[in-house]
Here is the input.
Amino acid sequence: MEESITRLEMKTAFMEDTLLTLNTLVVEQQKQIDALTTAVQKLEARLGYLIEMEGEGAKADQRPPHY
Here is the structure.
């Protein structure tokens, strides 16, 4: 009986340690996801700006319709 209780206590301690480790990893991954999301948003904004500028440049190079 005592041996069974000791085994259960060891398993519980191992599970608690595993849970803490996994929780730490989840927090780190969420920070990485947040950083990547911010980077993607900045890139999307910059790409939109570049596309807009390219469109304006193309309009300036076009001949008027009467040519």
The first helix runs from residue 2 to 61.
